[in-house]
Fold this protein.
Amino acid sequence: MQPTLPIKYTYKVTDIFYAGEYPFEEEQDDGLPKLQKLLDFGIVHFINLTSERLTEYREFLPKHCTYTNLSTVDYTVPSFENLKKTHDIISQSKDKVYVHCKGGHDRTGVAVATYFIYIGLTVEEAKERYLKVSKPVKGRYPHTPLMETQWKVLKEYQKWLADHKTETHEDHDEYLKLPDGVSILPFQEGVLCVDVIPYTLAKENAYANAGELWHEKTFYVHNNVGHNNAAVVCPKSTDPTNKCPICEYIQANQSNESAIKNIQPQERQLFNVIKADEPDKIYIVNQTYRTLGQHIDSRIRNAKDNEHFEFFAAPDTWTKEDEKEYGKPVKAGTPKGMTMKLTINDNALVDTVNFKPRKYTTKKLIDKAVNLDKVLIVHSYKKLQKMFGNGIDTGE
Ligand SMILES: [Zn+2]
C-alpha cells in the first residue's frame, strides 16, 4: 500500500526522495499549514529549483532542516552541476529530501528522471522508472510528462557524469602524501611501458611481514564523502582492527541502494614504477583494481608454465629455495624479470597488459622506491564521522 503523501502534487521517488510542487503558498496563512504537512511527514532537506519570485518559505523551516536553492528558469533544464548537487544531497542523506520547482513538473521531473541515471540505470530504464513514479501527478498539465528536449538530457547527463567521474578519480592529493619530487603517473591513451619496482614492506603494513619486498599496496577508498565529496582511505583497509564509520553506515543501510551506492569502498592499488624513457625517476601509479590490477592478475593466470609472470616485479629477489620450488623465474637467459607493457584506451582504461624481458637489474631502483606503507593519509574514526556529516548518526 502506498503511504499517504502529505500534499497534493507530490510523489514518492524512493524512501527518502520526494518530489513535487512548491511547498508554500502566496499567502503565509495558506503556506504555513502546507509546509507543516511536509515537515510532519519527515522532510528534512528542501531543494528549491525555482528562480522566479515566489513567497519564500526558508525562514519558516525549523533548525534541523536544510534548504538549498539551485535556481533554474522555468521550461529550461537545470545545469548538470545543479543536478549532480541535488543527487549528491539525496544520495548522502538518511532523512527525507523534498525536491520541488513551482508546479512539480518539468524542472523537478528532470531532476527525478536524471536521478535514475545518477544511480546507474540506463536511459531507457530511467525513462520507465520516471514515468512510473510520476504517475500521481500526470494529467495535471496538458502536455506529456517531459518535453522532448528534456528527455535528451538523460543521455547527456549520463555522459557528463562519466566524464566528471574520471576527473574526480584523478584527484589523489586528498589521501596521498608523496615525498617531494615524486608524482603520479597519468594514464593516457596509447602504449605505456613501465617497470614495476618493489618496495620494502614497513611495520605499518598490517597484512605482511616487515622487511620483505612486495610490488603493490592495496587499499580501499570511499568517494563522495560529506558535502565536499571527499575521497578518503577506508581505515579498515589498512588495518583490520580499525573501525570505519562509512562502512558501518553502509552496513546499516543495505536496503537504501541510492544512499550507499556512491560511497561503497573501491579497491585501489599503488605501484612504484619507472618509465622506459625516464629510467632514473620513480613515479607512482594509483589506479583502481578494475582499471589495472585485475588485468595484471589475469595475464599472470593465463601465462604459460615456464613464464612465471607472478614474479614480474621482483626477480632479483629470487632465492635458491624459490628457484627449487618454482623453477627459473623467466625464460633462460633473461633472469632479470619483466617490464610491463600496457595499452590504454581513450577512456584512460587499460585494454591489455603484457610482459617482456627486462634488460637490466632493478636492485638499485629498489632503494629509490617510495615506501607505499607510509604514503596513505588515514583519518581517525572521529574525523571521518565529522567529514561524513549528516550521512551518519553521530549520537550514541
Ligand atoms: Zn570503510
Observations:
- The two ends are 34 Å apart (CA to CA).
- The first strand starts at residue 10 and ends at 12.
